[in-house]
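Q: Hi! First time doing this. I have a protein sequence and I read that you can turn it into a structure. Is that right? Here it is:
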Amino acid sequence: MALIELINLSKSYDGEKVLDEFDLSIKENEFITLLGPSGCGKTTTLRILGGFTKPDTGRVLFQGEDITQLSPNKRQINTVFQKYALFPHMNIAENIAFGMKISGKTQSYINDKIKYALKLVNLSGFEKRSVDSLSGGQQQRIAIARAIVNEPRVLLLDEPLGALDLKLRQEMQYELIRLKNELGITFLYVTHDQEEALTMSDKVVVMNKGYIQQMGTPEQIYNEPENAFVADFIGDSNIVDGIMMEDRVVKIFDHIFPCIDEGFGKKKPVDVVIRPEDIIIGKVGEGIMDGEITSNVFIGVHHEMCIEAGGFEWVAQNTKSYPVGTKVSIDVLPENIQIMNKPQSEDEEAISLEEVLGEENIGEDNE
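A: Yes, that's right. Below is the predicted 3D structure, encoded as structure tokens:
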């Protein structure tokens, strides 16, 4: 039985629909990430689950019980916001104790819980420190400590790492995984950062315009995108038109590529996804298509190069560097070619990332 069920949720702001008949089932002790661009509905989903926003239609079930109209303080759910919402006039112990005092817990119980929570987030001894004396990462840990002392069944996290620098953000990703495993509670995490989603999640829910585009494990989302939007949003992709000639054979720019996909029919237009790291660069004539290196940028672990071939500029990633102007060939292993059906209607049409990010009619507050 699912711990949480979101059933047929819809929500509009100023006539703009942010969620449209949204359904999601969450099991106990899962780490689920809602991933998508601004305005896709992920934060609205989290706020509805937390009780801060009421849906226009639909229901929220917790262990089969309808909690749609239940106030936030009566749900077994706590939220960690992006801005932490710590009280600057209180010290750390007082911040953590705030919810427990409202609940009428004894002082000895509160003191034990404060020590336990601070140890859990590796900040033992910080009880008397002021909020202003803490770094961003430390404040984020205190916000988590304040949430977990109330022993929630579910912890909601609304882009809590967004204000941290890259190294600290990566450290906190591993801390959150550790906390989830130690506490045995369910995490629902909201982010637009693909790396965060792929690093931490048991399940990733990719959203766009109030709909779920794809849901699955990080490996499934990355390796088997179901449409061009998911392929474009999750990592870098070369997305090109192709013709499925028959099972296991696709034509791309008049060149035949073997693949492993079946069941698309014969001579059917399809979308083809090839990841940059899967492009094999060789000498002219060695691969399926010949081309020329048009740009080369070193980005740390590898070189990212553009290759003009077949009238298309392919993005390729390789640990070996090729100077601009070098004539090369490109090839791809059959198992690294992903075939997708082209959308059959406007509702199914995959929207490019550039179009999504260009929309400004829905602000960040309505995510």
